[in-house]
């Protein structure tokens, strides 16, 4: 069962009532997104899955490791370094997210390495969804 757009609009209205700004992504009422400079983001899409992602840019990792040299690094090496780069912040939140029923996964492509915690919210009320979003946001940024 997929949640409907009305469900997301109701969640957005609850966020707005609390004074919690949602970033506009151009998708109108089809998603809710919060992003922070530290490479951390919360996303709730029309599929009803809430994700919290921690990402690092692999080009930055390449530059960090090889500097100005033309050394070609393997994707495995880049991902290992990216995982280590993310470890402190992810370790800080891992236990809380797992206790709250989130599943951990990894997404990686040529441009970025992402550790994702996801939780399906299909079947929850707008208020229950709002409560989970608020808890996640408070856990990540402390307000």
Chart the SSEs and their pairings.
Elements (H helix, E strand, L loop, with lengths): L4 H13 L13 E6 L3 E6 L3 E9 H9 L8 H25 L3 E6 L3 E9 L5 H16 L2
Antiparallel strand pairs: 1-2, 2-3, 3-5, 4-5
Description:
With 143 residues, this protein is an alpha+beta fold. The protein is built from four helices and five strands. Helices cover 44% and strands 25% of the residues. A five-stranded antiparallel β-sheet has the order 1-2-3-5-4. α1 crosses α4 (126-141). The radius of gyration is 17 Å and the shape is elongated. The mean pLDDT is 85.
A few lines on this structure:
With 143 residues, this protein is α+β, with helices and mostly antiparallel strands.
List keywords for this structure.
143 residues; alpha+beta; five-stranded antiparallel β-sheet; 4 helices; 5 strands; elongated
Total helix count?
4
Q: How many angstroms separate the termini?
A: 32 Å
Main beta-sheet annotation: 5 strands, antiparallel
Mind telling me the C-alpha Rg?
Answer: 17 Å
Mean of all residue-level pLDDT scores: 85
**CATH-derived topology:** Aspartate Aminotransferase, domain 1
């Amino acid at each position: 069962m997929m949640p409907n757009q009305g469900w997301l609009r109701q969640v957005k209205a609850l966020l707005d009532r609390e004074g919690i700004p949602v970033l506009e992504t151009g998708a109108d009422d089809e998603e809710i997104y919060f992003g922070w400079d530290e490479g951390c983001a919360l996303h709730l899409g029309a599929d009803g899955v809430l994700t919290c992602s921690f990402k690092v840019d692999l080009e930055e990792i390449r530059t960090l490791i090889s500097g100005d040299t033309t050394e070609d690094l393997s994707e495995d090496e880049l991902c290992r370094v990216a995982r280590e780069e993310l470890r402190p912040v992810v370790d800080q939140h891992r236990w809380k997210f797992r206790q709250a029923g989130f599943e951990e996964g990894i997404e990686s492509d040529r441009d970025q390495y992402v550790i994702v915690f996801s939780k399906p919210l299909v079947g929850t009320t707008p208020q229950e969804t709002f409560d989970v979003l608020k808890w996640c946001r408070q856990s990540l940024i402390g307000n």
